[in-house]
Amino acid sequence: MRLLSHLLKRFVEKGQLTVITVDGVRHVFGSGVGGPCVTVRMHDKKLERDLFFNPELVAAEAYMDGRLTFEDGAGVFDLLNLFSVNRKGLGSHPVQQALRKGWRALRRFHQANPVAKAKENASSHYDHPAEFYRLWLDETMAYSCAYFSEPDEPLADAQRNKFRHVAAKLKLTPGMRVAEIGSGWGGLSIYLAKNCGVHVTAINVSPEQLAESRRLAEAAGVADQIDFREMDYRDLKGPFDRVVSIGMMEHVGVHHFDAYFTTIRDLLGPGGFALVHAIGRMSPPGTTAPFIRKYIFPGGYVPALSEVFASTERTHLWVADMEVLRLHYYWTIRAWRHRFEARHSEVEAMMGARFTRMWEFYLAAVELGFLHGSNMVFQLLLSDRRDDVPVRRDYMFTGEEALAAQELRLPPSPSSQEFAQ
Question: Which of 38, 216, 395, 408 is buried most, with the most CB atoms less than 10 Å from its CB?
């Protein structure tokens, strides 16, 4: 334990970590004040050394493989919460600093997403059975940040809020042609077709998601308004009146940002504009955590806003509007994690124990990243010209009111009627 103890003494400043080694000896780190108290048991002598050199990846793999277990009522969320509140202590250790320097040097390799590789990377996460996602997502099947009126709002309502919020920002009118880049399980496309009367070309590289999206669109009665296509965003041709991309930019990779924004710009017809909704970080440019990079989102990267705006500058796009959602994804993932835990036995029966533990680790890690880390979500409105997007934001609010009234079949207010015209 000599190496690992050296790291943990510097790492655990808040709360307390008790490590039970293979020989049954208990090692205690931290005072127990200001954070959770967690007890773990290591079932593999080799873990002591491996955790010292790459704790973020090795802890996840050890939990997935059953070589690291919890005692005294603790679980993986408690361990990751302890890590989350002590993040600075870990990052300041010389070995960890050297490791992060190496990751930064390899960013271009880690985030390489040419067309074939992008499809492979997306498939590794999204081409699980729709039944798996249906177990713990809500009825909208939306797998991105919701938009909450209050923290405890039902998840399905918050996801519909997001659809409505996006639709209002896009200022849609019946008959418009809309491109959706990265269409997920089809929830947004179905909403736009059904409530706004538009024609959507929705692209995705996941056959599993596309098959389920077509089924859901048929059930909603809007299959004739949506063209679901299996293709990379770089292969889509316009023009379109609007372009929308929800939760897709995180999969692009920083060295492909210019291609992504250039594609969006070139897809827009005269007077058109786009909405991009993505996870970002409020901190400077960084890297993707090794567990997320290896097991969850290979090729993915959450950008700093400086990297996003540098690319919009190079691609000559107007950022006509920006909104930052700071806690909405924390509330979203918290709901997903609770729903996942409630269906744990069903997930394990469907996907196996190792996969289930991997997903537990993933959901806990990203939830805490939005609570204690630097992650947030941003929404951009982008256009080729300065006045394609209305110059006042009022239209968004009246648009949401009009859509909400339409969904409830209530008579809209005069200001909402003005939006619809």
Answer: 38
